[in-house]
Structure formats: C-alpha cells, structure tokens
Design brief:
Blueprint: E1 3-10, H1 13-20, E2 28-35, E3 51-59, H2 65-79, E4 85-87, E5 91-94, E6 97-109, E7 112-123, H3 130-133, H4 147-162, H5 166-176, E8 180-184, E9 187-194, E10 200-204, E11 207-211, E12 218-222
Parallel strand pairs: 1-2
Antiparallel strand pairs: 2-3, 3-7, 4-5, 5-6, 6-7, 8-9, 8-12, 9-10, 10-11
Helix pairs in contact: 2-4, 2-5
This protein binds biotin.
Biotin is lined by residues 12-14, 38-41, 44, 46, 53-55, 91, 101-103, 119-121.
Length: 224
C-alpha cells in the first residue's frame, strides 16, 4: 500500500526524500503543493508551477521502475480517456507535447544501491514560461480531473504493475514507446526499440547501436 505524506511546500520532493529516506518506508509518497527548486534530468530545473509534483520511495534494487513509472502514468491518463505515448526513456507525451517527466535517483549503501526514488512532475495546467508552452501539454486541456484524482490513478496503476513480472512490464513499455527517427550529431537514425536494460536501440542502414542515456529529439517519421 502506498502511504501519502503531504507538504505545503518543499524545495524538491526528490531532494527531501534523499535527505530523509531513513525516516520513511517502502512505497511512501511525498507530495508537495508547491515545489520551489524542482529538478529535472541532466541537472536541469523543472518548472513546478501548475504541476502535480511528488516522489515515491522504493526499497530494493530493482531496475524496473524506469518502465513501470512511465506505464503507471500512461495508464492513469488512459483511465481519464487521454491517449499518451512514452518518449524514451520516460517522458510522457500527448500529441507529441510533454505532459510529464520522471526523475529516478538511486540511494547507495556502499557500492550497492538499496533504495530508489521515483520523482514525478505532471503539468496540470500549462507552464507559465512561454518557451515551455510550445513543447508542453497540460492535463487541464483534456480533463477536469483534479491533481489528487490523477495521483490516485497513478498509484492504483503502479500497484497493479508491481505485481507483474519483468517480461510483461517490459513488453508493455516497448509497445508504448515512440519509435520515430531521431537526429544524432546531424545524422538521422531510426529507433528500433529499447532493450531490457533500458538502452535505446537505433539503426541507420545496416548499422545498429545503443544509446545508454541522453536527450533525444524525435523526428516525424515513425517506425511501424
Ligand atoms: C524531467 O523531465 O527532466 C524530469 C522531471 C521530474 C520532476 C519531478 S517533480 C517531483 C520530483 N522532484 C523533483 O525535484 N523532480 C521530480
């Protein structure tokens, strides 16, 4: 069972859990109404104004949260009749515009990682920043659902996914991840899939390679 802890304001729910994880348990959820220093991937800041922002703590060292977290959001949106896709590794897009981002961080004990923090930010309304508006989508454009309604759906779907085996989860992720052309250092590559380690698989003519991490820019051509 997920247990919810709500705060009026925090700098970052991920940072809060990193600092206080000893005081919390597996599947505790830290939700804040206002996040003043939200962080995104690659040390970028995350615009948390108008967003649903929370982080979940998981004990153990399973790597499947990269897949599960995206699917839990995708299915929660589907429960509200919103169609979304996954942009590798775990951005959620509606009509090619980003509605949610996920920041997954590990807590190590010595050399082995023992806990994982899954931080989720969802645009409930459009971001205030005009530059972001071009590439962003917001939940309010598609449903009247409240933040708490969306959060409950995500947690319900997460709960179901946690009982499924890895292969089942992986196959679902694979069927929802966008397989477009992408541009890498000026060259077009075709996404052909994602492997079980979560690396992106791309192809150009007869050459195939893996992308381990990074930000990709999707092109328009989609791999059937
Ligand atoms: C990204 O798209 O780069 C990931 C964005 C993740 C933002 C969420 S908001 C809740 C949690 N706390 C943070 O500081 N970041 C994540």
């Amino acid at each position: 069972m997920f247990k919810l802890y709500q705060f009026d304001t925090l700098e970052s729910t991920n940072d809060y859990l990193k600092e206080h994880h000893e005081a919390y348990h597996d599947k505790d959820v830290i939700l804040t109404l206002k996040q003043s220093k939200g962080r995104g991937r690659f040390d970028r800041s995350w615009d948390s104004e108008n967003a649903l922002t929370f982080s979940i703590l998981f004990n153990g060292n399973k790597n499947h949260h990269v897949f599960i977290s995206s699917l839990a959001i995708l299915y929660a949106l589907r429960d509200h009749d919103i169609h979304a896709d996954i942009k590798w590794p775990n951005d959620l897009l509606i009509n090619n515009k980003k509605v949610a981002g996920i920041l997954i961080e590990k807590i190590y004990s010595g050399d082995t990682f023992e806990k994982i923090i899954v931080g989720i930010g969802i645009n409930m309304q459009m971001p205030v920043d005009e530059e972001l508006q071009e590439s962003a989508a917001a939940i309010c454009q598609y449903t009247q659902a409240s933040s708490i309604g969306i959060l409950s759906s995500i947690l319900e779907n997460y709960e179901k996914l946690l009982y499924q085996d890895f292969e089942e989860i992986y196959q679902q992720y694979l069927s929802h991840v966008l397989k477009n052309e992408i541009l890498i250092e000026g060259e077009l590559w075709q996404i052909i899939g994602v492997n079980r380690e979560g690396h992106l698989l791309i192809q150009q003519n007869d050459e195939e390679k893996q992308v381990i991490s990074g930000e990709i820019t999707l092109g328009s051509r989609i791999n059937p």
